[in-house]
Specification:
Blueprint: E1 5-6, E2 21-25, H1 28-40, E3 45-49, E4 63-66, H2 74-80, E5 83-87, H3 90-97, E6 109-113, E7 119-124, H4 131-142, E8 145-146, H5 151-154, E9 170-172, H6 175-186, E10 191-195, E11 213-216, E12 229-233, H7 240-246, E13 250-254
Parallel strand pairs: 2-3, 2-5, 3-4, 5-6, 7-8, 10-11, 10-12, 12-13
Antiparallel strand pairs: 1-9, 6-7, 9-13
Length: 261
Amino acid sequence: MTTTTITLPDIALPTEQAVRVVLVAITKHGAQQTADLARQLPQASVCVADKFAPLMAGLPNPVRAYGGAFRDEIAKLFADFDQVVFFVSLGAVVRLTAPHLKSKDEDPGVVVVDDAGQFVIPVLSGHVGGANAMAEQLAALLGATAVLTTASDVGKTIPVDILGRELGWKVEAPKINITRVSAHVVNGEPIAVVQEAGSPHWWTRPTPLPVSIHKFARIEDVDLNHFKAVLWITHAEVPAERWQQLNERLVVYRPPQGPGA
């Protein structure tokens, strides 16, 4: 059984220098909004048309001023940044970014802020790329509402693809397993979480763990016939026979080992 180890990026506020963020505007009003937000995120970069660059005067942020067509900037923004925050209409962002999309494992997080600064919408790479987390952070800074459409966020359940990310866990599973198991989780089907290693503090939502999630200390304690999927947090080697037995129902998480883990 061949598995894929997915190394997920750390998502943190830009002030922690973990994420390369750029705030992008193409109109005067958008540039003014960008300047206001940039003052709260001094390590984020700013990208505006050169005619609006004077509005950025006095900011500590790095400023990119472009003079040509804005569509020609997208490839460079995608290559240079982990999070691209657009003060641009959602439809325009979809059309502008579409030719540059590769996969959710490669694309940066893309977030749109509406013209009134009332809503912050993660558009691409919500989980793996961190756009959902970025949207919530920006909403808090702007006094806005983050519009999350990812099923696990809306349903307040386990995000299979990033569980334990803030604890340094790595996900080990074929991508089809992550897709299948995520569907079982958001559909409220019975899920076994087997934790044999790592910090027990992986449930960080303010709401209780869903009743469909059942916790076990050992894989041997799980009646596999009763559960649609197994999330196994372990340092142990997972034999090929176990992957075959569970087919597309298993996702393994690898917490860090050693002192301080």
